[in-house]
Amino acid sequence: MSFNAGDNPYIFKGFSLDWYGKLAGDETILQGLGNTLIVAVGTCLVSTVVGTLLAVGLARHTRSKVIEAIATMPAILPELMLAIGLLIFYTAIDFTLGLTSILLAHLTFGIPLVAVVVRVRLASMDTSLEEASTDLGASPLQTFFRITLPGLAPGIAAGALLAFTFSLDEFVLAFFSAGPTDPTLPIVIYSMVRFGVTPDINALATLLLTVSVVAVLAVQRMTRITESLK
């Protein structure tokens, strides 16, 4: 229906790309898209690095179930409860709401999410490779970058994809953490659909779906290449 020539979102009256052109000229949507990409890319990068290190730390350097539960708890908490808790925290410390607060909110979920995915991959790795590397004189840092990290690549890619796609279309955390002048794309969409679904919203949803599908296919392709190189 995003390719509908008419303005009725339920009756198809011919093929047209007019609604995509309308999206390209909508400053509100472009602002929301820009904010969303900033937050999503930032969440993906930080969550991937910190989440991977957290997973290695939990698997290799601690056996405390309490620490592991605390570290991964935000990934299983209800979003609404987490969002309200963050809003109370921001208010208590008088933190200005904006893109930074949204990014921090997404990181509280993204980091544990990546850690859980990478941890699963880490559990399936053969530890004898790391032991052999150490026996041959490699330092812990060399072993991590030459043995552990390449083996974790599929899990890291999957975690990064989840963190990015979660941040891209996440609404609840963003709604409670956003300032009045920095709406993300899901918030913009919410403000639009309150007055009814229109073809331009269908076009926007189609673009978001396309990005998600392309990202999944890209990660699958990258994972196959990584596996074939081993």
UniProtKB/TrEMBL annotation:
PROSITE patterns the UniProt entry points to: ABC_TM1
Pfam families, per the entry: BPD_transp_1
GO cellular component, one term: plasma membrane
Localization: Cell membrane
Keyword line: Cell membrane, Membrane, Transmembrane, Transmembrane helix, Transport
Alphabetical list of SUPFAM superfamilies matching this protein: MetI-like
TM segment ranges: 37-58, 70-93, 99-122, 143-166, 201-219
GO biological process, one term: transmembrane transport
Domain (ABC transmembrane type-1): residue spans on this chain: 33-219
Membrane association type: Multi-pass membrane protein
Recorded superkingdom: Bacteria
Family, as annotated: Belongs to the binding-protein-dependent transport system permease family. CysTW subfamily.
PANTHER family the UniProt entry points to: PUTRESCINE TRANSPORT SYSTEM PERMEASE PROTEIN POTI (PTHR43848:SF2)
Protein name: ABC transporter permease
Organism: Herbidospora galbida
